[in-house]
Amino acid sequence: MSKAPIVDILMYHSIATDDVATAIAPDIFKAQMDAVETSGTPVITLDDYVAARNGEKSLPPTSIIITFDDAFVDFQEQAFPILSEKGFPATVYVPTGCVGGTENWRGALQPPRHIMNWSDLEHLAANGIQLGSHTISHPDLNELKTLDLIEEVRRSKQTLEDRVGKEINHFAPPYGIADYFARTAIERLYQTSVGTSFERATLESDIIDLPRLEMFYFKKMKRWEDHLAGKGKGYMTRRRTLRQAREAVNRPWERV
Ligand SMILES: [Zn+2]
User: How far is the CA of 171 from the centre of ligand 1 (A)?
Assistant: First the structure.
């Protein structure tokens, strides 16, 4: 049994109809959020989670944190209206050097998807959406020389803070990858960092590699509703085993 409280950190990228693992159709996203609302599971922020770990706050037995990587424009168009209608907070991880442009990194779709501009991001930050850093240029951090690594981790935080006037405390490494050196750089500047290991978080999880639930795996509503009802353990275990087998043979940027 996992130790309570359990926190499911949901991972989304694009909310669109592209037939790829980094996109979820708007109607499915809406159904997933409706199911969260119906289940009554509280949606909290990463700050709440940190406060709970510091003993400053208590969490219910199960709660949810919603995260989006890459800051695609469809967040603003598709996800934000649903989140704000339900009063659900969320975190969007921004690759600051790509703001107002398109995805241009390894694994990008063709044609590339558009990324929000600064005025979109400033508007979101003023309306209940927390921004986190997703580096400047979306590199694989493990491939960088030390100075470039520090620059990607530090300057992205500084840029976001200058733009939105709020402290930026949360980070997501591109591709979920951060070796020892990357971790060291991240933990010096951020309170949390999220990864891609497919597990439910607890207050004991590695705070610089928090597990997340890839929501692509919960496109079937019955499966998501079962999970929310606490009946999803068998599926989680099977999916984790499959994923580990796939990651052992695939190149890391093919991870979702
Ligand atoms: Zn990304």
Answer: 11
